[in-house]
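Q: I'm writing up a methods section and want to include an example of the input and output format. Could you take the sequence below and give the corresponding predicted structure tokens, formatted cleanly so I can copy it straight into the document?
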Amino acid sequence: MTIQDVYNKIDQAAPFSLAMEFDNPGLLVGDPSEEVNGALVALDVTDEVISEAVSRGANLIVTHHPVIYSPLKRVTSDLLVWKLVRENLSVISAHTNLDIARGGVNDILAEKLALSGVETLPPDHMVRVGTVERGMTPPEFAYYVKRMLELPAVRYCDGGQAVERVAVCGGSGGSCLEEVIASGAQAFVTGDVKHSVMLEAVHRGITLIDAGHYGTEHHVLGYLSGLVRDALGGDAVAIARSDADPATVI
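A: Here is the clean output for your methods example:
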């Protein structure tokens, strides 16, 4: 099976055409006609992920975050792209298309929080909204998110009302606060929340949980590795052991 076969399988499940205009998903490094010897799945391409791929004999890395996001003006030895080319490693990245697609990042986040009656919010079809099994106070809900997502800590602001209807957006969803408020949700779970967004949430009566960028997205790796495994029809696929949150909580 070739790199193009893996690309096609991901495209069937999370069409690259769904990606937002600013995004840069797809085959970002490599030759689509090359045979796949093995694949490593990770949230990001890092030095550690590259080393692990080489040690495993894999020649394809599949990530959520694009390894090339902004236009490159140079390719020198300090860049990850240079290291990928040197090691003959190809990279496919599925980013906002995987956030938006059914079964992707945000559906998995809603599932991890055991939300029922899940709906997709317009206009970007990124945010999911559903209902928790029982009403909780904001502190109870914050602890619930921490436990369900298996996190060492979360940040939250107390919206001052019981939480039943919950919105989720993996990664960095603070810009979606207005859509969340319009949906009637009492709580919003996302990551990378700015101070100003926390203040606005308190003012508007929304409990906002910052569960981290990594914490709200890395659960998609099981799904993504399954797509790659289906494409290759074998077991030469692994989630990177070196994939980790770059931030440490002390």
